[in-house]
Fold these 2 entries.
Entry 1:
Amino acid sequence: MDAILLIDFGSTYTKLTAVDIENEEILATAKDLTTVNTDIMIGFNKAYEKLMKNIGERKVNFVKKLACSSAAGGLKMVAIGLVPELTAEAAKRAALGAGARILGVYSYELNKHEIEEIKSKKPDIILLAGGTDGGNKDCIIHNAKLLAEHIKDVPIVVAGNKNANDEIEEIFNNAGLFYKITENVMPKLNTINVEPAREVIRSIFMQKIVEAKGMKNAENFINGILMPTPAAVLKAAKILADGSDKEEGIGELIIVDIGGATTDVHSIAKGDPSKPGVTLRGLQEPYAKRTVEGDLGMRVSAVSLFEAAGTRRIKKFAPNTPYDVEERCKFLQQNVNIIPQTEEEYEFDEALGMVATEIAMERHVGTVESVYTPMGIIYSQVGKDLLNVKYLIGTGGVLVHSRNPEKILKAGLFSMESPNYLKPTNPVILVDKTYILSAMGLLAEEYPDMAVRIMKKYIVRA
Amino acid sequence: MQNGKTVVIGVIGADCHAVGNKIIEHALKEEGFNVVNIGVLSPQEDFINAAIETNADAILVSSLYGHGEIDCRGFREKCNEAGLKDIILYVGGNLVVGKQDWKEVEKRFLDMGFNRAYPPGTDIKLSIKDLKKDLGLEE
């Protein structure tokens, strides 16, 4: 039978998913440790063997092999803009949406110290923005000159004031840099335009980064490493919400992905105010928005999660836990491979997951503030209103393997304790049980209709 | 015809009078200005950030609810801090409550560093004429 092989070279595991094209079914999945430091194909081959064993007797012909990757640190980026709340923020959102890990966000004219800092962070790509079209160009040109002078070997994506492009082109050509110029991330004040920059970042990722990370030999066997894993998840989320040409989508949704190191939230929703009389302020939000909380994780980031939440907030979800919260978090961070065995361990992990979900959602969604005016109270909203989003979907190892994913995800819902956070009030809660979201993002590149149908079938009520 | 000048406009403070703001935007566009309207409920920082990103030539601040004096304090100083050293600042609307002598009110705003201040009921055309003069577009 004809099938497609979808591969996710993750930071820890290489995960394979085989999809039967004819019946639109998941044939089998398998995983093994990622081996990017030696030869990425060693881990792949081990996983492949397991996959074939899982498929069993049936004869399978893989007509397409597509991959995404977050191995070797993922796609590491630095974003540069002018004003922190405006073009620097827009650049950051564009990079996040492209599936990057943000190492730093810089604003205004860079100084030598900052340039050195950027250099030492070793980004894979630098995104350079600044100024609206027709607006300020001094800043972006200053920064381009400094980059050209001091950083030679990092690809640069230029997405700033279009009036500065000619000059930047000249600067970078003279310095012999690898760069690409695309549309401004903020062409008009408070209007964002992140898609073109995302696409260019992805193309550089395919062209340059995959090779730089020692994954070129994987491309002899597969048809291509198309995108960073988080970009694949965002792609899957978008097509599941909006649908494809032939297949209807399920509507606005949020995806929560709790990991060992980070907690990601993706929302596919307009986010306009759902209540009358609310004034929307600040930078426009992307329709497909991704946020990454580097301090909220179950293992590698357990201590920073503790620092962000504190004992009382964690104990809110596990009131009778016998552990000292701080000690336990330290222990988990030092022993990242721990899988909970006892009731107490389960309870504590669940509590961590709930706190991570709660805080990550608070940071992702918009807020509403009441403003007292001579005309009475009025409401001002910054960010996305997600009160009426229809679906909340959980993915990632923690939720997929949890006994009670619904309970964890419910920590991300609207609460009267903090009513100014515009979190979903009553969504249907679904779980990506077979862990196929990133694979479906890849599949959607070639077979969008099928990807939507399979997700509808396999992403189920918690 | 565009005249090549960019103007940031908005209503400052906890003030949500949106109608006049739209009229000002419309009138400025008619005269060829590139208008960046940050809308109602805008703090000083939003005006300034917008002016930086768009490389604006002037900021026109509206205030209709009588708290203009409090809301506008320190505006010029913040502009200076942000590197918008010579940007033109206008303010207008119902800037203060009660029947106060306009001359005194005007002086207070000019002392705060605004280039011009306008009393209630000023025709926007008058302000635009001044603006063109201050920007060197007209005699």
Note: Residues 13 and 71 of chain B are 6 Å apart (CA to CA).
Entry 2:
Amino acid sequence: MSQDANARLTGDFYTAPFGPRIEEEGDTLILNMGPQHPATHGVLRVIVELDGEYIRRAEPVLGYIHRMHEKMGEVKSWVQYLPNMGRVDYLHALAWNWAYVGAVEKLMGLAVPPRAEYIRVITCELNRINSHLLWWGAYLLDLGAFTPIVYAFADRERIMDLLQMVTGSRLTYCYYRFGGVSADLGDEFIRGTHEFVADFRKRLPMYRGLVTDNMILRGRCEEIGVLSPETARRYGATGPVLRGSGVAYDVRRAEPYSVYDRLDFTVPTGRNGDAMDRYEVRMEEMNQCLRIIEQALEALPDGAHIAPDLSERLLPPKGEVYFAVEGARGKIGVYLLSDGGPTPYRVKLRAPGFSNLSLFAELAQGTLLADAVSILGSLDLVIPEIDR
Amino acid sequence: MKRLFKTLQGLWSLAVGLKITGVELFKPWLTVHYPRQEVDNLATFRGHIELVPAADDPQTPRCIMCWKCVEICPSRCISLRLHAVGEGAEAGDPGLLLAPELKSPYSAHLPPPPDKIERVLDSYRLNYSLCSLCGLCVQSCPVEAIRFSRNAYLVGTTRQDFDLDLLARLRNPVDAPRPPGPRPPT
Amino acid sequence: MMAELTALLTHPLAQMVLALAAILAFLGVNGLVLLYAERKVAGFIQRRPGPYEVGPHGLLQPFADAGKLMSKQLVAPMGADRLLFWLAPLVSLAPVVVCFLPIPFSPLLTGMDVNLGLLLILAFSGLNTLALCLAGWGSNSKYSLLGAARAVAQSVAYEIPLLLAVLAVAFQVGSLDLSAIAATQAKGLLSWNVFVQPLAFAVFFISAVAETNRAPFDLPEAESELTAGFHTEYSGMGFGIFFLAEYSYMVVVCAVATALFLGGWDGPLVPGPWWFLGKVFALVFALMWFRWTFPRVRFDQLLNVCWKWLIPLGLANLVATALLVKWVG
């Protein structure tokens, strides 16, 4: 194979110019979107080759916010790695908290008190709503509507106030601990959450009227970026992206962890796999989160919020473990290898956004530039999570 | 005909959208307008850590200098200095006086410092620019000598401003943050 | 002496110069007012205070912004065609001044009473497209180029329904003189053309939104796709003039809509000019309201709306008007 075909495979855009192909196929324009671009939300870089406004090919370039989270796991003690998890995906920090804490608990065979399990469910689902709300606002921003994100932030503010009550933080939570959570829920939190659930139920129809039913939005989302279940599987897509294509795979149902098997909720799926389906899946998921929170609050048992007598110098036994949870963007997996020492021997984080982003090159082919932005937004990418 | 109906429906959806923003237009602000108003949830806010005074003396910290917070801190932002007094003062472990940067997580298995020696805390510094507010130090303290402050209004213009001397802050509350609002005349 | 001065002042040329000066002053003030209004409207819709810190309720904010824009260094990107790059903002703003000349604020307060006023406005507002095109081409930036291409396609397409809607009214009145058209609607609310020609009004207003590149039709500057479209590379006063021109065009189209469809200066109690301005700014408010409510349409959808809906509707309306005028009136 020629050199440029090789370069295309490795994706090294610095040393391999797009050049030779352009000469072959005529007049195209190479546009460098990012790393600073309003639609790439952070530091994602997408190189697109345009024919007019049609995208001939698009190639995401990663690594601008790589912070060596996995390597940091190897030099920090088991418990010191906790604050890192809130910073991998700052939008659904608690799910990452949970994935790591759950993995260590599984490795050590540590039992979590039932109250802590319910607390985790409640806070994690609140965090999920929070994440979906920000995605909703940012996606609409991509599509040119400025106001929804501000309305979303009004609701986010309430969630963050609630989570601040128990975690003390507003974004990068470090709340879960091995064997439980770091602080118990107060009455004020429970009352506030009940109020929030009731109020947010009333907000959802407003969102529908303002945005979901809007003719312009439907025009921008329907039949855009159609993702077949086969393609989604091929790329390992998970979360709302996969469910939008009609595959009802949700880690909370497929491999139930914690107390999710005791809670009643449905896994919404789409039919066509287009951007609108992914959108609708997320909107419906927020509704399901409310249901889960209500049930969990109802069933919240009394008792300890953390397993007693745990030394912070904990040493998990030798072995390896994989634990997955359902994050707002899909399956979050943490793989740990322990040699019995004070630090993990190897940490591997499976970020759902990485697989979801990989879809983009294929989905964006042949679409308009504006549609590519819509597709990119509908994948709900958090770049720090992808680069880790 | 069906297309026409769909278009009319679409136009109606636009009108619905306009109605929603039109209604919001006349609702009051949600903004908490900072210098004039303040947020009311600072009770649960976690600012930088601070030392808890002993029950009998507000000038003395409760800290027993066990080094647990220093060791557990993922960013190593806490550093203590102390000196020994009384019997065995000369035999004070110089290792304890090492800067924590020189210690590694592997030092966890080292024997704890001798606790027979009477010790006095000289300084308790927090490099707040490194702190990620994870709460591990607060949680690991055996005597609850550290807690989170509610200081949401800490500002500074240099990196040194965030190198906090917590002992001085405990002893001299003037250093402690002022509530916002008009500054008192100086 | 006095008589000479009066003669000089009433000379059409002198009148025009005075009018032009007055219009320039009006444009400047208008830019400041609309800048403030837009941000306040956006703020209130989003339940924020909007600008608040500079002056009471942020009233002086536009002055601060203008001062900032004017004091910035003028930077042209490397490899830009400097002549075209700096010409573009001027080409954008200059014609708008002429567009204001025939607008009848009241029967007396008209810059220049030409009997082809409508034609003048349509001709000169078309120049704005050229400005966007120059800006996009001269910037030596890919985003700008794409923005310029969109601007040209959009403006050319939307001028047709705009003309069709305007022609329907012109047929009905039998004049292209804005004052004359406004004067025919001075017989109370029901004589306003918006009730006589509702379809033409709808077509005109939608086309006007597209012509002024306002959201949801702000494709030439589509921020999330093209960063800032044709004015990506402009900063300081280069951007400021584009900004001023955009707001001025908003007022022009709204003023034309007022004169054509909303009865011009017609209204009770207060004098005509106040009514005229009030109607203009109500329409401007509607434009802002749209902007802060709707997502942006896609380019092909934008052109579909034009070719598949607005032009057929405009044509049908024009034919119907022509037939009615022929047989009835």
Note: The longest strand of chain B covers residues 118-127.
